[in-house]
Amino acid sequence: MNSGLPDLIASVATDFGTLLGVAVSATATNAIQVLLSSYLQRRAEASRSILLEELSLGNRLSSDVDKDEFCGLFFSYLTATRHGAARLNLRLMAQMIAGTLQPGFALRADELAHYSGILSQLTRDEIQLVATMWRLQESFEDRKDVSDQEKLVAIHNEAIESLVPSVFPTKDEYTSVATSATRFGLILVRSVWGGSRFDLAPVVAKLIRLSSFESAIAKESV
Question: Is the pLDDT of residue 85 over 80?
């Protein structure tokens, strides 16, 4: 095991608020100062709990963890916490941090920074849509009797059936969310059989390896 890694994780548990820069002044009298201090303290505790929970789920830690990469991801997590990222986004980022500590992990530092940025900015609707499309794509993985075009069309149509109106009131809203997700390169628009269909980009497979969208949604469901 990396000799310095346990100390880093222990520091997450004991010094998270300090690392985040949260300090509640005992002499604070200004109403907004007291309110903001309390808010930041609650966010720090929630963010810390999410990260420690995901770190605790790993089977074992790799002996080849790059501490600079770990610190880079952790800094991104702190920044997202400070900037008000939702619990669901923090959950996905925490899963990514935990994933980098597992044996067999292999992604470049620039890829990690890019993916971490994406996870911090996705909306809940976008996460729900990507999770649904991934689940459907997986269900077609071993279907040798269906062509790639047929799979694409089927996944597109079944995703709409699954999410409209249970998640998105109308098909137009579904289309709007799917189009929005293209800004991160997670969803592609393909022309199939004379019409446009939404398709998951290959990068989603890398993200799912590190962050389980469906698991995060289940844990942070409201």
Answer: yes
